[in-house]
């Protein structure tokens, strides 16, 4: 089985990314041949600082290994190192529907917030479809917010197969049942987000223990005192239950039973300690890995080579089926 996922090297990665992303990457690498892509080409579609892109690409590589990706098992690489990605995106843009792209929730939300809306922000999901389809992917581990983009990738694959003959596997999404959508600690009606959440609303993977404790202590809770999972009625507490479940691996009903009548205070303290216990070793590993840049770059070079070899035959087939004269 082929597994593929991508993650943007912008900003600082948070607990939501851990839950929908990193945690699932480390788990799925055990199930087949896995590719994880640092999607730097996606990150230029909204305003960004070139220097920061450079640093955060290496930061993210270190986080991917620190959260459990094994370079001998998984292929970790940078999107711009494999030119098949932008090539595939251009070819696929001819089978992507303009109307469907305009219905992408992420495009609508992000374009509302920008003064300058780039064409790349609009075609972004086509690049993502190419990422996935080039690897003949079976399974795509993602958070809830990427489901619509994956549907689009499936539609693109089917349309291409229909028009030019069977070329692509049609991939399936894997979204975790618990923790597919971690919410902002201060505004639990909104998802925890790199760009939209204030510092107090998101726990960063690299936050030191006291910062994590402070953020969880001041997390917004709901009226009442019972620790119960009811996202509509109790968005704050329900989110904390999901966070604790992700951090400890315990099911939510078990947590409800344990904290039922103890009040919010002790529960929040335990959530904080569970998150510290999870993230502290990750941060330590991250710092070690990030300090050795030549080693990181070496791992990424190895990954890019493997990715190029794997993507190339699919790209070649695309060109041939579409009628291009090959050199
Ligand atoms: P990004 O940082 O946008 O590239 O996202 C990387 C991965 O993290 C994607 O699979 C997202 O679906 C996932 N993700 C982002 N935010 C959250 C969140 N609040 N809860 C769960 N998963 C998330
Ligand atoms: N669009 C995804 C996000 O913002 C990142 C991404 C790019 C991706 N290419 C991908 C995710 C391929 C899964 C598969 O989170």
CATH class descriptor name of the largest domain: Alpha Beta
Can you tell me the CATH architecture of the largest domain? Answer: 3-Layer(aba) Sandwich
How many strands in all? 5
* Estimated radius of gyration: 20 Å
Approximately what portion of the residues adopt beta-strand conformation? Answer: 5-15%
Form type: globular
Major sheet description: 3 strands, parallel
- The class by helix and strand makeup works out as mainly alpha
Give the termini separation: 32 Å
Query: Can you give the mean pLDDT?
Result: 96
The domain count comes to: 2
Q: How are helices and strands ordered from N to C? A: EHEHEHHHHEHEHHHHH
User: What small-molecule ligands were found?
Assistant: adenosine monophosphate, tryptophan
What share of residues is helical? 40-55%
- Low-confidence stretches are none
The oligomerization state is: single chain
Would you mind describing this structure in some detail?
The protein is mainly α and 327 residues long. The protein is built from twelve helices and five strands. It has two domains: 2-174 and 293-321, HUPs (Rossmann fold, 3-Layer(aba) Sandwich); 199-287, Tyrosyl-Transfer RNA Synthetase. 54% of the residues lie in helices and 7% in strands. Strands 1-2-3 form a three-stranded parallel β-sheet, sandwiched between helices. The chain has a two-stranded parallel ribbon with strand order 4-5. Helix 3 (84-92) crosses helix 6 (119-133) and helix 6 crosses helix 7. Tryptophan binds at residues 4-8, 39, 42, 128, 131-132, 140, 142, 146, 149.
């Amino acid at each position: 089985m082929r597994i593929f996922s991508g993650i943007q090297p912008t900003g600082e990665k948070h607990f939501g990314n851990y839950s929908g992303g990193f945690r699932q990457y480390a788990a799925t690498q055990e199930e087949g041949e896995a590719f994880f892509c640092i999607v730097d080409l996606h990150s230029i579609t909204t305003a960004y600082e070139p220097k920061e892109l450079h640093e955060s690409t290496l930061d993210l590589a270190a986080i991917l290994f620190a959260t459990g990706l094994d370079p001998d098992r998984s292929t970790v690489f940078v999107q711009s190192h494999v030119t098949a990605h932008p090539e595939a995106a251009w070819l696929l843009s001819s089978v992507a529907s303009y109307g469907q792209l305009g219905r992408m929730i992420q495009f609508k939300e992000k374009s509302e917030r920008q003064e300058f809306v780039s064409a790349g922000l609009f075609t972004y999901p086509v690049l993502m479809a190419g990422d996935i389809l080039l690897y003949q992917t079976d399974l795509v581990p993602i958070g809830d917010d990427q489901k619509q983009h994956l549907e689009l990738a499936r539609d693109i694959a089917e349309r291409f197969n229909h028009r030019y003959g069977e070329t692509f596997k049609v991939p399936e999404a894997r979204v975790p049942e618990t923790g597919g959508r971690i919410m902002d600690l201060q505004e639990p009606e909104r998802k925890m987000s790199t760009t939209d959440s204030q510092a107090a609303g998101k726990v960063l993977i690299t936050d030191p223990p006291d910062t994590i404790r402070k953020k969880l202590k001041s997390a917004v809770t709901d009226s009442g005192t019972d620790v119960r999972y009811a996202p509509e009625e109790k968005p704050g507490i329900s989110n904390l239950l999901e966070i604790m479940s992700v951090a400890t691996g315990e099911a939510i009903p078990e947590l409800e039973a344990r904290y039922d009548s103890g009040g919010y205070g002790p529960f929040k303290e335990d959530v904080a300690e569970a998150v510290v216990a999870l993230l502290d070793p990750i941060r330590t590993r991250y710092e070690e890995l990030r300090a050795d840049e030549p080693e990181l770059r070496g791992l990424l070079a190895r990954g890019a080579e493997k990715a190029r070899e794997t993507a190339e035959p699919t790209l070649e087939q695309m060109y041939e089926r579409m009628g291009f004269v090959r050199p």
